[in-house]
Amino acid sequence: MSIEARHITKSFGAFRALDDVSLTVPTGRLMALLGPSGSGKTTLLRIIAGLEQADRGSGQVLFNDADVAERAVRRRGVGFVFQHYALFRHLTVFDNVAFGLQVRPRRERPDKAEIRARVGDLLRMVQLDTLADRYPGQLSGGQRQRVALARALAVEPQVLLLDEPFGALDAKVRKELRVWLRRLHDKLHVTSVFVTHDQDEALEVADRVVVMNEGRIEQEGTPDEVFHHPATEFVMRFLGEVNQFHGRVDAGRVAFADVELDAGDLGRQDGPARVFVRPHEWEVSLTPPTQAAIRAVVKRVQSAGPVVRLELQTADGALLNAELPQETLEQLGLAAGSEVHVTPRRLRVFAADRAPPVAGA
Amino acid sequence: MADGGKRHTTTRPRPGVGEPAPVRRLLIAATLLVLGCVLVLPLISVFAEALRQGLGAYLASFRDAEAQAAIRLTLLVAAIAVPVNIFFGLSASWAIAKFAFPGKRLLITLIDLPYAVSPVVSGLVYIMIYGANGVFGPWLVAHDLQVIFAVPGIVLATIFVTFPFVARELIPLMEEQGTEEEQAAMTLGASGWQTFRRVTLPNVRWALLYGVILCNARAMGEFGAVSVVSGHIRGKTATLPLQVEILYNEYNYVAAFAVASLLAMLALATLVAKAVVERRAGASTAEVAAELQPREAP
């Protein structure tokens, strides 16, 4: 079932959580709503579920092109996984998962044996069949998360909505569970939307990513699109580390930090601009390259890890971060104090007509 | 409720921390002395006085028709007041804890009113409203309904005085539990009633029971408010506490203390029930505490 939100606005008092947001999730896709806290992503998810109402007179939510405004939460057929799981603390794992089947009206309710069989299948799917008699208080965070998912899937929802599904777990469990969620989605193909503030999670798990900021959608696209072709400065900053420069665009060329380079597709507007280079996009060399390069001194080499991280200082005192493969470091024989020339293999230029956004992660 | 977990935190004072031993012993002795004089001695003397002329005289006190009427009336009043306040307490705390609406703070304050007002005053207010010269007096007289100096008045006064007991236990717990489980139930297709019966109610069952026990004890033991509206008609509008007063004023000490011993036993039974419920509630609090510190095994 496809989900569409049209022109949704939502205010809490004077705070505008969502500002005219529109979104389409095609049938069977797994979409991530990515943004910092307060960006409106959870509010949008709750409005889709019907747990929250959009402001009067604003927008619609459509499932398979049908307006669901008149359908209460319990008739929307959504599976919702809450950030803190919201498991029923007085019920066993089995009864938690069976809940959605047991509350059905008698005519639609499967009989006891069938409920038992279906809950058993779900618990096997989430690998918790041995813990059916435990209470939520006796489970680890990752186990609770899987119970919450099994419970949501038990009602065979047309749409699965997950609010920060891995937010409360530690790093290792989180990684395992997100791989597992992706596999589960590939098996079930339920149209799914999940909310996260973790860019790695969104880029790794989702088919499509919606980046949100201050109640608006900054960009929507595949993980590749949003990572490699950020539409706005905010997306650029939010989806990874950046080196930032102040510069000036003139006739398709951008000048910053003693160099002048092609401004690329984004830098078509003449005037003051901000230039961004990701740490792994620097070309580092010992001798001056043919194209313009920035002279810098290596301040620190951090080589423990899959990539080497360099801290560089330019002639005017600015600090830069660069990442290199281990082999390059060995070839160049870099150490603290080495003089190098760096030039961006790739850069992104955004006109500086807006106030600088809050520094992203 | 909330202090259910405290038991586990009581530990022996570490050496070098706390008072020296003689001071500690002195403080404990002083506490025991005060407890003994104020609580234990009176309790013992109730039974001692009641049994002064032997078990036969003690038991004979309960064969008295008036005493039996007082017992029946007290049970009747509690049987009405407690369910009414369960219903009210559940509705009020559900509304207060799970929804946001204007006037919420005012409602919470109003629920506390019976705690703040002297029971005698609340009794007098009922006379002002339902008495023969009260606001509804003429209408009640015209329809041949007697509220004051009759059972309805006693029930009303008791409901008023025991008003906050259930709600006060439930509101903090329900507020702490939040609404996520209810929302989860709704997304799973549960109706409002199913959500209440299968999720909300089981989550507050121990707090509810605790509130009911306290409410019942107060309903059976209330003196002030009931005294004002009852009119002390022997065998008709005298509840157990009023019956004690009547007998005592007639210098019928054995009977007075015999009836009083019933109330004392009710108090003891209440304390035991309260302790049991606290223990169970404490156990489920511990469960919740365990939930907050998950064991991280995937």
Task: Note down, in words, how this protein is organized.
The complex is a heterodimer of chains A (361) and B (298). Helices cover 25% and strands 33% of the residues of chain A. Chain A has 361 residues and is α+β, with helices and mostly antiparallel strands. The longest helix of chain A has 18 residues, at 171-188. Mean pLDDT of chain A is 89; it is low at 355-361. Chain B is mostly helical and 298 residues long. Helices cover 77% and strands 0% of the residues of chain B. Chain B has helices at residues 6-9, 21-50, 54-63, 65-98, 104-116, 119-130, 137-142, 151-177, 180-187, 192-203, 205-221, 224-230, 240-249, 253-292. Chains A and B meet through strand 6, helix 4 and helix 5 of A and helix 9, helix 10 and helix 14 of B.
Secondary structure elements and their pairing?
The complex is a heterodimer of chains A (361) and B (298).
Chain A (H helix, E strand, L loop, with lengths): L2 E10 L2 E11 L4 E5 L6 H9 L10 E4 L2 E2 L10 E4 L11 H10 L9 H14 L15 H14 L4 E5 L7 H18 L2 E6 L2 H7 L2 E6 L2 E6 L1 H6 L4 H6 L4 E8 L2 E4 L2 E4 L8 E7 L4 E4 L8 E9 L4 E8 L4 E7 H7 L6 E6 L3 E4 L10
Parallel strand pairs in A: 3-8, 3-9, 6-7, 7-8
Antiparallel strand pairs in A: 1-2, 1-4, 4-5, 9-10, 11-12, 11-14, 12-13, 14-20, 15-19, 16-17, 16-19, 17-18
Helix pairs in contact in A: 2-3, 2-4, 3-4
Chain B lengths: L5 H4 L11 H30 L3 H10 L1 H34 L5 H13 L2 H12 L6 H6 L8 H27 L2 H8 L4 H12 L1 H17 L2 H7 L9 H10 L3 H40 L6
C-alpha Rg of chain B (nearest Å): 24 Å
Q: What is the helical fraction of chain B, as a range of percent?
A: over 70%
Helices of chain B, by number, come to 14
Output the structural class of chain B: mainly alpha
Rg measurement of chain A, Å: 25 Å
